């Protein structure tokens, strides 16, 4: 999402929205743990089906239905959003699978890696140049991933799939000529036919664990639409009120909460290779964040100079 830099005085106004979005994303494994009796594909299908009506309600409130219809008529936009919709579907499915199979730790690592993946993708596809500190941060993170190759290969694919799919998704959405919420609605619309088919299939086979078999489970599956759309709306609001660089600092809240949940709520074992990787990733994030802070400070001092 391309967002103009927000005035310095407005950064604080967007902070509650950003904290709300990333807190929901950080605690969302607690929600999905309630649905472990349901096949991951059905959870994904129901999540897509139920998020679309809520997107329409929010778009109507924000007067963005016209943007949604305009995007549907633009073939270039549709092609880009078809690719992004497939990427976000893969991301959601792998994330749900990770939670269901007690690999929340690997999921949190994937989202820790995501900002660094964004830097590399920006360099490769957008011609952006890495500063020395950014290059150092990416190198440190690469060493951490290499350690996982030696000691935690069984879950490495989860972390890399989440980081690469969401990073590539963000790259496409950054260049797609459509806003955050109308874009999400178009993506959901494109995924709706196959999602309805999958949801209908699981209802038809009636395995006793999915939608329609239990009121509690059915209600939770429907609530997945709210869990999808509400944090995205909070994020979009925060992005309008804050600079994207400032928003970048807050994004580490979600994987940090997920990391703590995996250790202290879900009791996942922390392998030595994972611990070493996390230490390197945190070091990398510290270097990366310092570089962002330094650039923000220089930009704010420039008008005064």
Q: What features would you describe in this structure?
A:
- This protein has 305 residues and is mainly alpha-helical.
- It has one domain (11-304).
- Helix content is 82%, strand content 0%.
- It has twelve helices and no strands.
- The protein has helices at 11-32, 40-61, 65-73, 75-100, 104-125, 132-151, 153-175, 180-205, 215-241, 244-250, 253-264, 272-304.
- The radius of gyration is 20 Å and the shape is globular.
- It starts with 10 loop residues before the first helix and ends with a helix.
* Oligomer category: single chain
Order of helices and strands: HHHHHHHHHHHH
* Beta-strand percent range: under 5%
Structural class assignment: mainly alpha
Low-pLDDT stretches? 1-11
Radius of gyration: 20 Å
Tally of individual domains? 1
Q: Percent range for helical residues?
A: over 70%
Straight-line distance between termini: 30 Å
Q: Describe the largest sheet.
A: none
Number of strands: 0
Total of helices: 12
Q: Write down the overall mean pLDDT.
A: 85
Gross morphology: globular
